[in-house]
Request: fold
Amino acid sequence: MATRMIDPAALRQYRQQIAAGFLLLRFEPGIEKDYASETRDRLRGAAQICGALSLAVWLGFAGLDVLRVQQLPPGIVTHGELLLWFGARWLVVALIVLGLVAARRRWPAYPWLAWLSYVALGLSAGFTGHLARLNGSFSADSSVIVIVMAAWLPMGFLFWRALCAALIVALTSMLITMLAHDPRPLSERLQVTVMLLLAVPLAGAGGYLREYADRRQYLLASLRYRESMTDSLTGLPNRRHLYCEAEIWLARQAQDGKSWAMGVLDLDRFKAFNDRFGHQAGDDALQQVAEALTGALAARGAFAARLGGEEFCLLVPGTPAQAGAIAAAAQAAILALALPHPDSPNRVLSASVGLASARPGTSFDTLLRAADRALYAAKSSQRGSLYWADVAEADDLEMVGGEGLEPPTFSV
Reply:
């Protein structure tokens, strides 16, 4: 079972990003990846609306093309030109439909399909408009300008990608207007070129300001969320995060039936440690314990959170024997810190653990209560020990040690 532990370094990274700024609309790689993914998911609905409107408008233009061609004098348009004309129109229709399907089915690549559809739409508008002008049908310059300014609609791609698409459409249309054969006077073509040049920065400025504000809001909201789910002293997930994670594990167990256990780990005689060395030393010890737990558990697919004080909660995957071995590794990692503690049986800081096997239909509170009772039994018997409990029919609770032993059970 994969963990969703918030990396404590992420908090520093988000704070540093806010302080450093993002004038170029780029974050550090990790944050940028998260922002792009969040934006892609958030704009999926808006992209579908924009795509549907574009499809409706484009189908309308395709229908008008048939009427325009029928009104042209016979022989003025070659079969090759007609093939290019209608081929470009219907290629765009196909791309827009594909993009809508991708957004609907939550394909990760849908922003690229939206981008490709937009570019194809803009190039097709410029190309078919030029063919129409050559045959005295109509002028599509204003529609190309609208398309250029529409690059910053919420279609799922970010500012720089929108700018690139708008420039491709605008520059291509400008080249066609200025270099291709055109019956219009030079002054009129220059006017169209200037309008296309102005459309990109004017629309782009609005797009830049909107994305800058959106990125800042994303940073602040993400930082607040991570702070609300993280213990400020140790950097571990807090009780709120633990509850959310445990609900995920319980739901997955109901789906795939994989075994896992919840553990409550308590540092032995930690009050005496604080009294002897002071609360600052106690805080330093808690931070070192948190790092030790992260190192011992993360690679094994387990999850650690701080319940409060010197208590930590573990979510440990595997059978009882496997979960017990992982919990024992967490205890060993704390012993390996070798933090002097004269009041502890081992003369160094140690921890006791109570474990409870999760069963389908078990609630978070019931599981935590069972693990807490197992911990109480461990601390009452022998500090630094590991006790098992299971939400079952039996009423006995005994200490177990070593791997491969079946955990005794008691009822909650």
In short: DSSP finds 13 helices and five strands in the chain.
